[in-house]
Design goal:
mainly alpha, 2 helices, about 0% strand
Length: about 70
């Protein structure tokens, strides 16, 4: 017969506790050097940079001396 909901939840709780204990003994180095360069040679990242530059260039043009003061 299938386990009851109470039994299934109890088993899940035990597994979560075991996972939490296992993870408590691990260390994660939070250092910018571990992610620096992660997007190197990534075409999607390069496209994002290019589009961001285009947006900023358009904003500089829109905010120029002839720009609408209400903008």
């Amino acid at each position: 017969m299938a386990a009851s909901l109470k039994d299934r939840v109890g088993e899940l709780e035990r597994k979560v506790i075991a996972l939490e204990k296992a993870l408590a003994h691990t260390t994660r180095q939070l250092d910018w050097r571990t992610t620096f360069g992660i997007a190197a040679d990534d075409d999607g990242f390069e496209e994002m940079i290019r589009l961001g530059r285009e947006v900023r260039a358009k904003q500089r043009t829109a905010d120029g001396p002839d720009a609408d003061p209400g903008h």
